[in-house]
Amino acid sequence: MTAPDFAAHEPADAAAPEPVAAAHDAAGVADSLPAGAPDAAGPPHDRLHESLRIGSLDLDRRAFMAPMAGISTPAFRRSVRRFGAGLVYTEMISAYGVHYDNRRTLDYLACGEEQHPVGFQLFGADADVLADAAARCARAGADLVDINMACPVRKVLKTGAGAALLADPERAAGIVRAVAEAAGPDVAVTVKMRSGLREGDEAGRRTAPLLVAAGAAAVCIHPRTAAQLYRGRADHAVTRALAQELDVPVIASGDVDGRAAALALLEGGAAAVMLARHALGRPWLFAEVLDGVPEPDLADRLAEVRRFAADALRDMGPRGVGHLRQFWQRFRRNGALDRPLAQALMRAPDAAAVRGLLGL
User: What total number of domains does the chain contain?
Assistant: First the structure.
């Protein structure tokens, strides 16, 4: 068997959580909430704050942060948790990389207590390899293992992984069955999927019931086809249909850009919503979605940028400089940085320069 590129990852999803598991103590997060974050003492009583059970995992809110390749690092997960994300995810992790002990891939399994509840997302096409990787994720502390059947990127599809699994429902179901058995009863297994491979094939709706029967405790639907990539609007009529057809929670991903969109999806039958692209450079979007909190003032936004950058540089060392470059212009567009500072940060050659510009 030829293993695919261990570093193959899904790009930032245009649509994709955040309830808090009873199994982990989130007090440290609550104690350090930045200005503009939700007040843990008295959130509003709406569906976003209702508890939700996914398999064995109990969550206390229904807004999640999506798994995103190159984005969902520990520093990023801590940032969105500060603003209320109830469930966060790792980057998309190669099951082959875990199975074959690739050092860089194994680094993705690291997560601190303050990040829980956390889902580990795996991609691959071999049931035995995915099962082994899932068991190792469970031992590494995963609260949930998600199987990626959504990635539309060619180098992932050509290995039979990601959205390509929707073309073979029996194989997809076999993977879920093997992963659920390997992960064990204490780790929920879920699937993130597209609505189909191309317009009109309805592969997602045909495959989802088989995945649930095989042991999926929830299904996250990004209702664009793989052929669409991230273009156009997500078709949440598909989300509503799946919510009616499945007897497990259906998580809505795609175009969740504010509180109104999130509440409309819950009203339409989704059990939870997953934020993705709209929260990049705007982690405080979670506070807005969950509690209607207005955006923090400029000083508080800059303080969060500084904290996030300090975390990333501490965690990643020199690699953190390149990682952070994808965020500077997003922070600028969301009012946290002015143009000269953002441009200077883009040109910063090393960690010392970044720290100097941000006063770290």
Answer: 2
